[in-house]
Design brief:
3-stranded parallel sheet; Fumarate Reductase Iron-sulfur Protein, Chain B, domain 2; single chain; 4-stranded parallel sheet; mainly alpha; 25 helices; iron-sulfur; 6% strand; 4Fe4S_Fe-S-bd; metal-binding
């Protein structure tokens, strides 16, 4: 079996472990599957993320452990075609994995079902081709460059018959509102000002504005830029190289990776690596806003065969909240936040990938620094949107059920509370649920800047 991702980090996984039961097909990928020890911890209820589809169904097959059993069976078959042409039960189990990465953090053996699904999808695309819907999802960063993208999305959202036609033709849920780009995307400003280094390198930072914040939520990126400048940092904006599609914003390749196209994800990754290489070489930190994109740079890039450049980038990449807390600990961030007199109550919903890397601790630490702010973390699993999952017709009800487990009830219980949620998918799910669009943390902290900033 030709593997599409680099699984060499699992080369010694399970060796000498009598319970490993490593499948006979799949090489190091099979070892990644076999790290599961069958403890059934993923079938527990209560706090945590994993596993959203198990939580709404109670079906153990839809837990990480259940998926492992099905994968092992397919990889142990006499012919590897059992994996390349999976039976309906395995196909459904993998289809209902939301790649939330809850298992990687909460499983005692760190089963990375999100990464396993990425390989599974790549195998299926190579074997069976790609649906038009999946191709559209994967090409979203390029589609959003088209001037007609915004009017077309507005037309679709405002036309019941068109929405229904797209559901029939492509399987895009007619009852779900699709996100619409802002009238004006994020503006990079003058490249001349951005390329000149001022001051010591530890007071310089590179802001990577991902596809979603660039097109859909430029206010969050603008707030982050203002916030970092107020903290005393020279802010370099990550931008394409002049010789590499300079008119198209940089993208991490997440949409390609999560839709079974690791080759295209690697192409986007190389474009980003080339653009960021001078900053990494100079020792600057790379700061981002979207959890799934930043974790892509720190985690998935290491599986795409990108070499040492990817490892060096991964060591320099931080979410905004992680960066500020780190700088505070080092004594370089001395700015104090001010009270928000018009905010009496705040709810925080964490993106699954923020939880996977422990970044929610940094968010809470920052919110505690806003004088008099009464806030609470919503103890919820995945919101259910998970990129394109929650807008696909066959998944709409699953996504809604996931949101109804804890997130939506918490929002209904406190309708007057301000809501902070960094994930673009989470923001979209919350808006589609009939609630006010959440703020990104960058926007909330900008509201708490001293008046002179």
């Amino acid at each position: 079996m030709k593997l599409f991702l680099d699984w060499s980090s699992y080369e010694n996984a399970g060796m000498g472990d009598a319970y490993a039961d490593i499948p006979k097909h799949g090489a190091d990928f099979a070892k990644a599957v076999a790290v599961c020890i069958g403890s059934r911890q993923c079938e527990q209820s209560g706090k945590g993320v994993m596993c959203p589809s198990y939580r709404i169904s109670g079906n153990p097959v839809l837990s990480p452990g259940g998926r492992v059993k099905l994968l092992k069976s397919a990889l142990n078959a006499g012919d590897e075609q059992a994996f390349l042409n999976p039976d309906p039960e395995l196909a459904e189990a993998m289809d209902l994995c939301l790649s939330c990465k809850g298992c990687k953090r909460e499983c005692e053996n760190e089963v990375d079902m999100a990464l396993i699904k990425a390989e599974f999808l790549a195998q299926q695309v190579a074997q069976h081709g790609m649906s038009l819907r999946r191709r559209l999802w994967s090409e979203l960063p390029k589609i959003l460059c088209w001037p007609v993208a915004r009017p077309l999305l507005l037309w679709r959202n405002g036309s019941a018959w068109l929405a229904r036609a797209l559901e029939v033709a492509l399987g895009i849920g007619a009852k779900v509102r699709l996100p619409v780009p802002a009238r004006q995307p994020f503006q990079y400003g003058s490249p001349a000002k951005d390329t000149v280094s001022v001051g010591p390198v530890d007071k310089q930072v590179v802001l990577f504005v991902d596809t979603f914040n660039h097109y859909f939520n430029p206010a969050a990126a603008e707030a982050a830029q203002k916030l970092l400048k107020a903290g005393g940092y020279q802010v370099h904006i990550a931008r394409p190289r002049p010789d590499d599609e300079p008119s198209r914003p940089l993208c991490c390749g997440r949409t390609y990776f999560s839709n079974g196209r690791p080759d295209r994800a690697a192409r986007e990754a190389r474009r980003l690596l080339k653009a960021l290489e001078p900053h990494v070489r100079a020792g600057r930190s790379i700061v981002g806003l979207e959890p799934s994109c930043i974790l892509n740079l720190r985690d998935e890039y290491l599986k795409l065969g990108l070499g040492e450049a990817a490892q060096k980038l991964a060591e320099k990449v931080l979410l905004l909240e992680e960066f500020i807390v780190r700088e505070q600990s080092a004594g370089r961030w001395t700015l104090h936040f001010q009270a928000l007199p018009d905010v009496s109550r705040l709810l925080l919903h964490g993106h699954c990938h923020q939880k996977a890397v422990g970044a929610i601790k940094s968010v809470r630490k920052l919110l505690k620094q806003v004088p008099g702010l009464d806030f609470e973390l919503i103890e919820a699993s995945c919101c259910g949107m998970a990129g394109n999952f929650g807008v696909e017709a066959e998944h709409v009800e699953h996504a809604r059920a996931m949101a109804e487990l804890a997130l939506f009830p918490a929002l209904r219980a406190e309708p007057a509370a301000l809501l902070v949620s960094n994930g673009f998918s989470c923001q979209q799910q919350i808006s589609n649920g009939g609630f006010a669009r959440p703020l990104h943390l960058s926007q909330l902290l900008c509201m708490a800047l001293p008046a002179s900033e």
